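Practice problem 4.
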């Protein structure tokens, strides 16, 4: 059995031209994902989570400046959206067509990528609608997306994303627009589906509780870099990077009723147009010293379980 990772990202840099400014969305991102693994990309607004997802899907806008490497070693070909990669967004209307009935939208990738007949693909679409929890799936298959609730629409978007049996499902804040009960149901649905289909999941979230609920491993992004990654149990119980520690301290206070506010970390993330010499978190870090401001910290630990922090140097 091959142990090649499904996805490997090395030194990924992405910059956007915005007026006269050059916005650095990713500043040397390293990340790896095993086949069937469920990884959460956790970070504050602007840390580069969506940019990473779009880069993986090959959907960055044409003007974006890209350097570094994105490879799919276990796939052995350039992935095709819809067939090898499924995509789910925060707003299900971003992936659903408002005028087509939902069965057609789920059947299309089955027909196109798997070569099924329309009749077989539509029958399979009804099976999938039932699997994602749509009541009276047979009748409602002919309805357009606006006739469903927000939670149901997200279920339908997930059904369409997994219809062709992709190896990797990319989900960008798929539950952020939903109430907490629906959020938990959708996360459990995603969890069940990716386990059944042995699909790897890369889930973007700013909420540690969402990451805790679904991920095998968590990668913490800050200012366009992965500052820490590790098995969820390890990272949540014993975060090593001062940023992860600050982020998790208040957010995982599970005694508190949801929605749990993001913890207040004094200071702000770095200016996205600035060059960074040292650690991006140094200006906000209570433990930073001169080296932190001048030298980029090396990764300490295993490739999939470690952190980039000068404090951790042996
Ligand atoms: N198309 C674009 N043009 C210009 N700047 C962009 C573009 N897309 C993203 N950016 C900038 O790149 C940085 C990273 O953005 P990104 O959307 O990846 O962050 P994010 O972690 O997904 O944030 P959020 O949690 O708010 O969705 C931000 O400073 C953002 O303003
Ligand atoms: Mg985003």
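Answer key:
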């Amino acid at each position: 059995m091959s142990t090649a990772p499904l996805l490997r990202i090395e030194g990924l840099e992405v910059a956007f031209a915005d007026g006269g400014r050059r916005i650095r969305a990713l500043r040397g991102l390293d990340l790896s994902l095993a086949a069937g693994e469920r990884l959460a990309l956790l970070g504050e607004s602007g840390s580069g989570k969506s940019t990473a997802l779009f880069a993986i899907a090959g959907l960055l806008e044409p003007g974006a400046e890209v350097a570094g490497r994105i490879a799919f070693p276990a796939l052995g070909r350039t992935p095709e959206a819809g067939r090898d990669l499924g995509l789910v967004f925060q707003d299900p209307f971003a992936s659903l067509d408002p005028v087509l009935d939902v069965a057609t939208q789920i059947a299309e990738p089955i027909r196109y990528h798997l070569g099924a007949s329309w009749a077989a693909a539509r029958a399979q679409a009804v099976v999938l609608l039932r699997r994602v929890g749509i009541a009276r799936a047979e009748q409602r298959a002919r309805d357009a997306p606006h006739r469903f609730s927000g939670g149901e629409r997200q279920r339908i978007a997930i059904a369409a994303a997994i219809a062709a049996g992709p190896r990797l499902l990319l989900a960008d804040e798929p539950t952020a627009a939903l109430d907490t009960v629906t959020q938990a149901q959708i996360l459990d649905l995603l969890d069940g589906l990716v386990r059944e289909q042995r699909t790897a999941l890369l889930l973007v979230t700013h909420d540690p509780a969402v990451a805790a609920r679904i991920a095998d491993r968590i990668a913490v992004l800050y200012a366009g870099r992965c500052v820490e990654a590790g098995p969820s149990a390890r990272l949540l119980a014993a975060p090593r990077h001062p940023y992860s520690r600050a982020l998790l301290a208040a957010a995982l206070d599970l005694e508190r009723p949801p929605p749990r506010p993001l913890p207040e970390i004094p200071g702000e993330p770095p200016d996205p147009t600035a060059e960074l010499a040292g650690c991006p978190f140094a200006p906000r870090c209570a433990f930073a010293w001169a080296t932190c401001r001048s030298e980029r910290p090396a990764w300490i630990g295993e490739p999939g379980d470690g952190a980039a922090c000068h404090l951790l140097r042996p």
